[in-house]
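Quarterly update from the structural biology core.
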Amino acid sequence: MQPTSSTARVCLASASPRRRELLAQIGLAHTVVRPDIDEAVLPQEAAADYVVRMARGKAHAVARRGGALPVLAADTSVVLAGEILGKPRDAAHGMAMLAQLSARTHQVLTAVALAAGGLVTHRLSTSEVRFRALTAAECRAYWDSGEPRDKAGGYAIQGRGAVFIEHLSGSYSGVMGLPLYETAELLAAAGLAGALPASAPEAGR
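Predicted structure, tokenized:
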């Protein structure tokens, strides 16, 4: 495990710059360790079960390496009509995803897990996102921007993809990849509310 800074309060089991930005937004000092787990979806596995299994697995995998810090992990899936839309393989796949999302409502599921005190606990955030109708030219231009290439569902709500979103019901930070309300709940439930610069909500509220 990489050395931790003296000020870090948690270890983030993710290489995602979006998740780092969100932790910085709430003033949670952290270090980063990339998890190494098999991310294949199991046969007949529901999307909610998948993201929970991934988040818990990432937290557990990094916690097993040792280290004094609690380990925070998350996993996000874009789900359309029960189908998990992963990261686009290439341009054709990415633009096909956008065409599928066009003028439809999809779910974004993000599970966040915390390994602390020998236990792994988790929360699940579910959001609904509706896209406006997209043209083929818009999909092509968006792909050519480079933004969607490593994003679940082939878009980024915090980037240029925001102009496609007609309506959002749920957690903006959850759609980005780390639901901050649920993260604060986990920290509070584990007795780590003091890791945040302001009081965290009571668990279960």
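The beta strands are 10-12, 30-32, 71-80, 83-85, 105-116, 119-131, 165-169.
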